[in-house]
Please model this.
Amino acid sequence: MTSQAEDEAVNFGRDQHFEHGIRYDRAAEFHDVVIGLWDSWEDDAFLRDKASGQWFDYDKMHILRHKGKHFTVRGPLNVARSPQGRPVVAQAGSSDIGMELAARTADMVFTAQTTIKEGQDFCNDMRGRMEKYGRGPEDIRIFPGIMPIVGRTEAEAQEKYEELRGMVDDGVGIAGVARLAGGVDIFACDPDGPLPELKPSNAARARQEMIIAMGKRGMTIRQIGRVLAMSQAHRVLYGTPKQLADDMHAWLEAGACDGFNLLFAHYPKPLEEWVTMVIPELQRRGIFRTQYEGKTFRENLGVPIPQNVHTKNRTSVQVNAAASND
Model:
């Protein structure tokens, strides 16, 4: 809904991307439209009564009739409500406006903190924002990204890390910096020199803040580009299964996240090594499941099934009416 890549605009009938703030305004309306369509049918709307010939209860089918700033959608959706109420909504981004959208709409958030303190601050900020939307801490799950590189020994893991880092193409990395430069011509700068002052980006605002922070720490354009090319500025975590589990366990115990979004440089071997070497260590500690608890993604994620808004409103009216009669 809020895609950051300028080039994508030309695939959707536009010469250039929407401005950052407009993208999020449009995304918020898009979310409301989709939620309204997913709630077209109440859970018990389909009677399927062959004897009476009544397939569904018309009063429990709802036409959206949305007319907004960005979209006009009549509805209803032509499929029944999902077994998990509605599909899980994921949001990726850490800008202020992105966090606000997530606080109102998301079931899960992908983010990119690199220290436990940053993770704690992000989680506290996000859950604080949710309160004004009537949502509780258990209504959302927060997953910072990590790129895990596992070895049977620390030396093996470091060797894999160095090999992967050596494969990074500087041209690709510097192009990644240029995409976040807000129009500043990075290619005209000395790649081994400091990052110049950047203009606000219409791409990924939070990611731009991350590379600016790298520049302030003394990293050159080339070095920043290598970080972007290797892991898109997510943490690269390498070590033995125990070392990786220690790190993840520390984040979870500190309340710096609810889990992790895993990024792998290639497939399938790094993923296979993760499953066979790290997962057993996490399970031994009791911080990763040994079997699925539910039948849907939402249940296994641990976020509640949302009640159909029309059912919720009808129940509220009935409760209010009963209270009045009393």
Residues 20-38 form the longest helix (19 residues). The radius of gyration is 24 Å. The longest strand covers residues 141-150. The chain has a mean pLDDT of 92.
